[in-house]
Amino acid sequence: MEINGVEIEDTFAEGFPIKVARVLITAVTEHWALVAAREATGFGTSVIGCSAEAGIESIVGGDETPDGRPGVNIQICNMGYKNLESSLLYRLGQCVLTAPTAAAFSGMSQAEKQFDTGKKLGFFGDGYQKQEEMFGRKVWKIPLMSGDFIIEENFGAVDGIAGGNFLILAQNQAAGLMAAEAAVNAIGRVKGCITPFPGGVVASGSKVGSRYKFLKASTNTAFCTSLREDGVCTLSEDISAVFEIVINGVDKEAISASMRAGINAACRVPGVLKISAANYEGKLGSHQFPLHVVLK
Amino acid sequence: MEINGVEIEDTFAEGFPIKVARVLITAVTEHWALVAAREATGFGTSVIGCSAEAGIESIVGGDETPDGRPGVNIQICNMGYKNLESSLLYRLGQCVLTAPTAAAFSGMSQAEKQFDTGKKLGFFGDGYQKQEEMFGRKVWKIPLMSGDFIIEENFGAVDGIAGGNFLILAQNQAAGLMAAEAAVNAIGRVKGCITPFPGGVVASGSKVGSRYKFLKASTNTAFCTSLREDGVCTLSEDISAVFEIVINGVDKEAISASMRAGINAACRVPGVLKISAANYEGKLGSHQFPLHVVLK
Amino acid sequence: MEINGVEIEDTFAEGFPIKVARVLITAVTEHWALVAAREATGFGTSVIGCSAEAGIESIVGGDETPDGRPGVNIQICNMGYKNLESSLLYRLGQCVLTAPTAAAFSGMSQAEKQFDTGKKLGFFGDGYQKQEEMFGRKVWKIPLMSGDFIIEENFGAVDGIAGGNFLILAQNQAAGLMAAEAAVNAIGRVKGCITPFPGGVVASGSKVGSRYKFLKASTNTAFCTSLREDGVCTLSEDISAVFEIVINGVDKEAISASMRAGINAACRVPGVLKISAANYEGKLGSHQFPLHVVLK
Amino acid sequence: MEINGVEIEDTFAEGFPIKVARVLITAVTEHWALVAAREATGFGTSVIGCSAEAGIESIVGGDETPDGRPGVNIQICNMGYKNLESSLLYRLGQCVLTAPTAAAFSGMSQAEKQFDTGKKLGFFGDGYQKQEEMFGRKVWKIPLMSGDFIIEENFGAVDGIAGGNFLILAQNQAAGLMAAEAAVNAIGRVKGCITPFPGGVVASGSKVGSRYKFLKASTNTAFCTSLREDGVCTLSEDISAVFEIVINGVDKEAISASMRAGINAACRVPGVLKISAANYEGKLGSHQFPLHVVLK
To answer: What is the C-alpha separation between D255 and D248, in angstroms, rounded?
Structure first.
């Protein structure tokens, strides 16, 4: 299989179940909504070492937000609902409540699982917080020095998927990175998913396990081109850099659509030689996304 | 005291001791250095609920970096060196090692306190990591799919100060926020300090303590203008919004210079009515920055 | 009439006919498409003193571009088709052909009026340019040092409208500007229109004519709050700054939709006291957009 | 000669004399100063088809601006002082006077050549403009709807140099473009110069003359890798893309320092194979910048 002359390997991406909450942050301008969203989703690449996986899903206009102001949808993901509740509490409390002119609404009002994060954060109001009905939603109004902070009482979450992915094998680092950026641009327009790594790109694709007992993941040696002389790298000679795009999303469809959009975009960048995907013989997770199926 | 017609209250900012590490992140372009820096400093506003306080200190050219590439200095701050070491390990491991083309160098080579974070992250190389001398520094070279990750072996840290601050009292929210942004612009040009909150601005200035046992900080009710009718707000009628700028830095001089630059900038924005500062009768910390002294 | 407590004056915006061409610029990444688009639309606020009026209409994904790469739709506007053809030739030749990885496609293939700008720019190929069929379009392939430049042969243009507008009357400059930015954010999501002034905002609303023979437009003295003591300013005392949003678009519907979206957004910003519009007793143009009709 | 393993060809860049004015734009925040600066320097790549060459020279803090607000230094360049005066009048009048909260100061107060652009633009005030002394400068205060526009009366200009340049020969387009971006980052930190092309990069390096009488410049065929089969391309087989960086500046030292900084930066990007420069046997201009001299 080829796209634009680039070979698509017949392999699959291996993902794993994760819990996903969507939060809609609004602010006086798109700029300030983004400021809050970036802070709230930072230090959120992988649950291996971050307290959550997080990213920006989409930017929306006032016609798609409860308060008619510009908004940014973010996703916060964690292993298990208990951890996720904690992540919501800390990330919204420390990064959105503190952000100039920001408000926070649930992006999953219909979800079965609901957390009363807004109510809990209300205690910051020191007794002056008030529950109200605004924009057809049950919210808490917390007095702040810069104005009232409006936060929805309940935030919904669903069973989602982490670790959707594909690999960009390139002639050199720059071509791989340009293609990765183009892929992230494309995925940014797909609903329901995020690319939680820095700039949406993983420079350090990993394998499950390592030679050290204390380390559960280590560099994907078979794809490290600087290990050619060590006889460890299995890549062909023309490839000198590999970037991975990791995708989290609300369901299989969102992940598949993102992979499709991202791979198609990457294959349009000169210097991209091959597309592959990362899988771990089921050691990582139960979700499989075969490239040739996803791209049909 | 007045600056540009704006009254400077005769009060002081109250800060507290914190441990500060500076990390210099370099990358192929300034853009990609910033991408890594933003991820590594995200979810890092306050140690009350974040695993660290963190922010961007400065952007530097290749003439100021070991590898001649564009760079971004970040600060990571935490209570106690043990917590700080953990923050370095997780934030560099999850957000810089994973970032496209990034490298990480110590920004405090001369500090007494040193952590071997680079050596520890080296284990990700699964035995293929190598210690080398590069650019006159002892570094670890960790093979990645996208190229080798270069990280200095040791990262230094010093006794710094958190909680340097001032308050911008404004005619309305927009004037306060514009002034806050102008202040953050100005502080961004001062060496040795960061403004860890979203966009550098605190929308939710707090007081120490609350009426709830489980909550150590709550909204600064005396400065909440929506609590006027409750008789709690002590601000004059012409003020309708207050923003706080919180500054962390390597020493008293950096904090003072930042406050001076920031206040001067804020006072140039129409609609700013008064500058004050937050203090807590010593309950928060031992460092005092009297506005009238700092501004001399 | 009121929106969110803000009075909407019962007046109308006065626009005038202009010729509009839409150009779709694609590039390897969204960033580089935006770089080309910004250069091509710069120095393009008003035909009073610029060689064209120009701006960014929308950012689109690879699924909406002929070559599957990220794209940016820009509009270039001028008085008369002859001037517009010249603007296309110079702006595309100097700012898009020269831009890294850029390609240029017509965004108005169905328009009656067509210019063979692509063919003319082909001469830059010094005889090596080639006409081809690509992506179902007739294009010219011009060899460049950095790769081939692909440009569609023909670019369409239509009779559009310039000077759609509204005025934001605010308590102070910052509130007015925040509201203007929010309005521009909202208009940026409406199809078919641009806001050609810096950041989409006009700081210097004008009236037709002046006391000087050589000057066809001058400051709108009746709205200049610093002329209160001169008895010229007709604004009420509570207003201290007025910003204008000027909108160009392909037709009445695009302008109306933009005004509606922009005004609604502006009225959500605290400190905005009134919305009005600029008109000139028909001296400027034949198109009228009554606020109360547009906002229905 | 080699830098970081990249061959530096023993050739020279050929520049030509141009007149250069520096304008310091200030605004309420750095963001709004940049908005004005970008509009004022847009459509300003080459005097071949633009009304001026223009670009951003540097961003400065309030400690380096007359009014204590954030500022951006731009350069506007043209052939002859008469054209330059016209460019100043139109670009400042249409793009800075119209920009929210902007003010404009001369960045060359000491230059022999001075234009009274501020006085001329004052007529927009329709008789209400006032000459004043502010910040130790003679300025005009022009009443605007959004507040007074402050512009210095006189703007200085000097004999500068255009066309300083170097060529980045790369393994593929992405590597060349990454290196170009890194070079532009580095040049952005050098005082006295601008890179007027889109994003600072020229995708379409040209030669003087063409086979068409009406065309004074055409694609640099000898460097077009897609013309290999035509026997026109003189580049070695390993090179597949060439980007040019064009630099304008106030004097030879600024151009030389920029070339040095830019080339050093470009040579740090993997996939860059050679650095060269563009010259035209003196047909373009009298200034020569030999790479091996500049890089000493």
So the answer is: 7
Alpha-carbon distance C191 to B278, whole Å? 47
Residue A288's alpha-carbon distances to A17, A247, A291, in angstroms, are 11, 13, 9
Decide if B39 and A42 are in contact by the 8 Å CB cutoff: yes
Please report, as a single letter, which amino acid is at residue C267: C
Partner D contacted by C218 (CB < 8 A):
yes
**Tokens 């700092």 correspond to what residue?**
B294
- Chain A and chain D share a number of CB contacts under 8 A equal to 46
CA distances from C239 to C151, C169, C207, C242, D239 (A): 49, 6, 19, 8, 62
D293 Cβ partners below 8 Å, 6+ apart?
none
Q: Which residue of chain A comes nearest to D268, CA vs CA?
A: A174
Pairing of strands B53-60, A137-144: unpaired
* 8 Å CB contact between B220 and B234: no
A69 touches chain C (CB under 8 A): yes
| Helices and strands (H and E) in chain B: how many | 6, 17
Query: What is the C-alpha to C-alpha distance for residues B77 and B249, in angstroms, rounded to an integer?
Result: 9
Q: DSSP assignment, residue B178?
A: H
Token pair of D291, please? 């790479």
Which residues in chain A are closer than 8 Å to D174, comparing Cβ atoms?
172, 174-179, 269-271
Element (DSSP H or E) covering residue C253: helix C252-266
**Identity at C69, one-letter amino acid code:** R
User: Is 90 exceeded by the pLDDT of residue C285?
Assistant: no
Residue with tokens 């340019």: C129
How far is residue A199's CA from residue A73's CA, in Å, rounded to a whole number? 16
Chains that touch C (3 or more CB pairs under 8 A): A, B, D
Find, among B135, B157, B159, the residue nearest to B26 by Cα: B135
pLDDT for residue A109 is more than 90: yes
The tens place of each residue's pLDDT in chain D, 296 residues long, gives 999 999 999 999 999 999 999 999 999 999 999 999 999 999 999 999 999 999 999 999 999 999 999 999 999 999 999 999 999 999 999 999 999 999 999 999 999 999 999 999 999 999 999 999 999 999 999 999 999 999 999 999 999 999 999 999 999 999 999 999 999 999 999 999 999 999 999 999 999 999 999 998 999 999 999 999 999 999 999 999 999 999 999 999 999 999 999 999 999 999 999 999 999 888 888 899 999 999 99
Measured CA to CA, the distance from residue C88 to residue D40 in angstroms comes to: 19
Which of B 81-120 lie inside 8 A of D, CB atoms?
Answer: none
Q: What is the dihedral of CA A76, A81, A82, A86, to 10 degrees?
A: 20
Residue in the structure block whose two tokens are 């934030």: B91
In this structure, what token pair is assigned to residue C64?
A: 């909406």
Q: Judged by CB atoms within 8 Å, which residues 255-294 of C form the interface with B?
A: 269-271
Nearest to A221 by CA among B129, B151, B132: B129
Query: What residues contact residue D192 under an 8 Å CB cut-off, 6+ apart?
Result: D57, D249, D250, D251, D253, D254, D257
- For the record, the structure tokens of C107 come out as 């965004």
| Closest chain B residue to the Cα of A228, Cα to Cα | B143
Q: Which two tokens stand for residue D290?
A: 């030999």
pTM: 0.98
In whole angstroms, what is the distance from residue C119 CA to residue B124 CA? Answer: 55
Q: How many residues in chain C?
A: 296
Distance between CA atoms of C289 and C163, rounded to whole angstroms? 10
CB contact under 8 A, B38 and A42: yes
Task: Bin C187: left if φ > 0, else alpha if -120 < ψ < 50, else beta.
Answer: alpha
What are the residues whose beta carbons fall under 8 Å from the beta carbon of D121, sequence distance 6 or more? D89, D92, D93, D97, D140, D142, D151
- Please tell me if residue B189 touches chain D, with a CB cutoff of 8 Å: yes
